[in-house]
Amino acid sequence: MSGRVLAAIAALFLVLGLVAAGTAAAQPAGGDAPSVTIQATPGAGVSTASRDIATGSGAGMAILFWALALGTVGGAAFVLTRRNLIAAVMGMVGTFLALAGLYMMLYASFLAVIQMLVYAGAIMVLFVFVIMVLNRPEDEPWGMVGLPGKALAGLAMLYLLVRLVMLVWSVNVPDTALVAPAAVAFPGDAAHTVYEFGSTAAVGTSLFSDYLFPFEAISILLLIAVVGAIAVARPLNDADELPGAQPPAPTGGH
Amino acid sequence: MTFVTTDMAYIAPLLILTVTGMLLVIAESFFRGRDRAGLMGLAVAGSVASFVASVVLYRQLEPGSSKLIFDGMLVADRFGFALTGLFSVITALVAMSTPAHQREHGWENGEYYAILLLSAAGMTMLAQAAHLVAIFIGVETMSIGVYVMTALRRRSRRGNEAALKYFLMGAFATGFLLYGMALVYGAAGTAELAQMKTKLLATANPEIAIAGILLMVIAFGFKLAAVPFHMWAPDAYEGAPTPVTAFMAAGVKAAAVAAMIRLFGQYLGGDVLPFGAVGWASPMVIIAGLTITVGNIAAVRQNNVKRMLAYSSISHGGVMLVGLAAMGLGSSTGQSSLVYYLIAYSITTIASFAVVSWVGSRDRERLLVDDWAGLGQKHPAAALAMTVALLSLGGLPPTAGFFGKFYVFKSAMDVADNQLIWLVAIGVVNSAISIYYYLRLVTAMYFREPTEPFTPSRSAPLEVVMVLCPIIILAMGLLPGFWLGLGN
User: Fold this and answer.
1) Which residues are CB-contacts of B205 (< 8 A; sequence separation ≥ 6)?
2) What's the complex ipTM?
3) What's this model's pTM, rounded to 2 decimal places?
């Protein structure tokens, strides 16, 4: 089992490396290094490789895409086939990271980072904690034993798969849709160019100007949820509280 | 696109309630044990400060003027500040009626006051919301607080059941609300209420918009406990601690109606309804008729005072929907009459639950009608307070409840082509029916002999509430003009 886990981790690092390579190359303008500004349209004076990166096309990008897609599906398959829960969760990390890479290729850099921080980070830690707290044995009981159950599950999966493939097949993406989003000047800083939709700058600008009030008001919601969760979930303490309606024990005058 | 500093002044009630709530979280550590009066004092002080801020802001604005703040997220107008003032008063009154109940029934959680004020902050957000996102955050802030407060009486099995039911139903409602908002946003292309109507009238996907609006009607129906989305209400009202029940019945309902007035009355209503009456008016009218009738008929059969008040509050929610439909269909007096009704209903509800809370003590919660027999002989003041509240709930003059119903039904009559006249008829018939069960309690209090001695849970703040609320009820009934002008 440990060998497979090691293999999974190795695959994960491979994916990570690919993601890192992809992100470093695909976001020349997002970094703080004064790199070249790449035009969205293939223009004069721009090398083929960098144009490929900017438009998300070309052989290199195709290889990257298929690698990340393989990572995504492979991680998911890994989750399904593991009986050790921790190993399964690690497979999920691989899926999430590969997905983050795919987001990066779609110029949704903010979403990619959030995907890594929140899903691959926080939520995975939560998963691992729950698994460790529950401390289940390695062999999880399988649901739906027997041939009819498996046949049913297989048919359902097959149906879902067919529908998904049909859907993907029917979507006809014109080549023009595959260019990078329009480049806009960074506010107040003409030297840098950012891609508008989905970039960290765009999300940040939106969050702190148009959506400033909800952004701040959410904190009240979170505060009330935290305080409330503690109030409801903390153990009952007899020293703190009087006995309730069940044992009528009058203590002290009022 | 830019942050305007003066916008902060227009959310002063929200800020005051939030900051006081945070202070209460911290202060809770310093008021351990039984000395929780200090916490109550701080909570009341915060609510009163928020009320004063609402009054100042209200007077500062011209009647009829409105000003979008925070890039169209919120709106500052007299209607909003009248309601933030109302929510502040509700919070103060609920906070004052709490210590006695906490002491008697052993749920002395210090977090309660913090949650109460933060929940009230959510309500003020609803009163001022002018954007779907603001409405959503307001609804959630308010609701999560109330779920928690319902669950605070943790040793009571009924309390736990109530909290779980309320929470699950509320979660469903949230799902409906969010899905509805997403669809409306998809159809309109904007989440700002001010632009929504024109965008919806020009949308390419009217089906999506109608589906979204219907889902939002359902979600608010849950919050308002409108029939057929009322199933959770009697259990939740009965199982929650009585002051929390008062907060649920008065505050949550008023806040839900406030958001509906904004959404359906002000921004989606008027002479030209998006997609005709199919959009939201027709379902709302049907829900209103059902709510009034079913709530009333169920209340007739109740022997438990809290359940009876719960069903009666469902029925009152139906009357609010009548006013809302009238307002949306173009009645010019709809909004002011609704605000009057909300104030009257909230104060009356708090008064009635305060007396319920006062009559019961640790050993005997005295929730059955029979338990109230002879209260008029033993404790005439409390019986009088309850009588005033019940008469107001039943809509008898000269109380606030009478004028509330009168104005709401009158605004429904104002709607063109007598569209709502049948709804008014249903409402009036049901008001007559409701007198029966309200007076049953009154006759029990005055015309029957006490079966066992009363052991009221005495507490000065609670008794202040019991004196103050009937005075406001009578003042509203005797001098309705001032209160009626608040909503404009």
Assistant:
1) B186, B187
2) 0.90
3) 0.81
